[in-house]
Amino acid sequence: MSSERNHIVPYKTYVFVLLALIALTLSSIAITTIELGGLAYAGALVFAIVKSFLVLTWFMHLKYDKLYIILWVVFVFAILLVTVVVTFLDYLYR
Amino acid sequence: MSSIAIENEANYLKYKGRYKGLLGWILSTDHKRIGLLYLYSMAVMFLIGAGLGLAMRFELLAPGKTVMDAQAYNATFTVHGVIMIFMVVIPGLPAVFGNFFLPLMIGAKDVAFPRLNLLSWWFFIIGIFLVLSALLFGSGTPDTGWTFYAPYSFRTGTNLLPAIFGAFVLGFSSILTGLNFLVTIHRMRCPGMKWTKMPLFVWTLYGTAWIQLLATPVVGITLVLVALERLFSVGIFDPALGGDPILYQHLFWIYSHPAVYVMILPALGVISEIIPTFSQKHIFGYKAIIASTMAIAFVGYLVWGHHMFTAGMSGTAQYYFSLLTFLVAVPSAIKVFNWISTMYKGSINLQTPFLWAVSFIFVFMIGGLSGLVLGALAANIHVHDTAFVVAHFHYIVFGGTGFAFLGAIHYWFPKIYGRMYDKSWANIGWAVFFIGFLTLYTPMFYLGLMGQPRRYYDYLAEFHGGNILATIGSWILATGIIIIFANLIRSASRGEKAVMDPWHSKTLEWTVPSPPPVENFDEIPVLEESDGPYNYK
Ligand code: HEM
Ligand SMILES: [Cu+2]
Q1: What is the value of pTM for the model shown?
Q2: What is the DSSP letter of B147?
């Protein structure tokens, strides 16, 4: 949380994150070849969540930011989550 | 406050920058010029939209075909809705008065990202042209209604794609404005302006900006999905392909209900500025108003399903959405209470902006209470998709946001142009407009309760009386609009010179000359402990 100074991230870190993102993308394609039924969606979502986490943490610099900014981001995702849950109040109880 | 008319040498209207003439405006990054760019482009769109509205009312003057057939009527209400919602009331107050006054009210020289601000305006214009291109080219004007509901939106033979792409681009404009305002409010307040010293208009812009930023992407993605469905039949909304049309309604209203708060929150902010100024009294319950603003912004995310009660949602969801809809009305009522209490024992000055503000409260109350009728499950079945809904949202959107907009322009006009409008004509314009408004929309409550459906070019003979009345109202309203526009346009160049603070207001924008200098403040103001936006003695 040393945020007022400019934190310089080594290129190597960025390359690692990029490789991880590519690997995850390939795996989310690969997983569709396995017959998983409904779980295929869950799988795709898990990969997507991990990927966004990586992007937010390193590419968007949250790892080196102030706590309150991290909390804002968490709050935003919480709203998204609530929206999804509320939508399922319809789908699950039809 | 000194009332010397300061000579307007380096004011933003006269300033000559890198470019001259029109280019000096459409390439300007000055938040004040951008605000006016929005004002002029929006005024043009408003007049087109109003013209379409008059045409629809003319069609409804008598049962059967009067001036247009069913297809033309469908196209007319679609374009009317798209223009009024996406190009007028959603950008509305933030883009015009937010741009112009946010930096002035918080003691800053501009918004945080002036170039992004200009880009937002360009996106706005590009979006407008994309939508208009759907009217002029291709296989007919879109006829789905402004809601683009599935399955119409992927079945209609009309030229829908440019229209939804246009709405998508307009969404981007809105997101960028929201982002810009958030950063500006967080980072650029002048020294001493704590969060609890911010004017309430700025607070409402803050709540609005969060909604713009978080809700607009949802509609963007939804419109992309509609395009995919139309082009490639991917089967997201089309039941024939395993899709779900109700999913479209969910996604659409997840954005569009919060969007109604994008329309109304800044309006509530404007009213919260006008009322204390013309009562010369500290606003009653400053913190309660802030809390209710943020509560509306937040709970507004969670009630979208009240647009879908008859669509076949689960009973659990209906119950939940109805309950929360009732809750969201509470903070609005808190504000009304606070405004009335502010006026109580104030020294009221009945100027034009104040007339707009009190008439706002009147129509906003009727609009809000009719919303509760719609939010009640059993009543909703009866009045959903009838003229009652049309009356509800025109009372709230036109009566609310529209009245606040007109109040705002009459309030800030002397600051924007450095000139005062003709006050008697302004009051006459207000009176004619108000009478026209009530005559136009009030019969629709009755017609809806009696069962006249919305979005039809024809109706049963028994509804004739109410429709005649409404159409006559539309002519009175149009007369009011003409008077107001004529008065303002004339006064912008020929009105009497205005002083720095004609209304004896306490917010910072009134401490700079009228019109403001290019950089707003020679020296960034510093607020003392005793200063505040509503500190009247
Ligand atoms: C007390 C607050 C409010 C309540 C309880 C409320 C409730 C409702 C409900 C239940 C509907 C759906 C009616 C139906 O189609 O069956 C509706 C429609 C609508 N409301 Fe409100 N509302 C409120 C405030 C607002 C505000 C502040 C705005 C905009 C500034 C607004 C704009 C609209 C619009 C545009 C529609 C119609 C959408 C369409 O189908 O074309 N409402 N309202
Ligand atoms: Cu709603």
Answers
A1: 0.92
A2: T
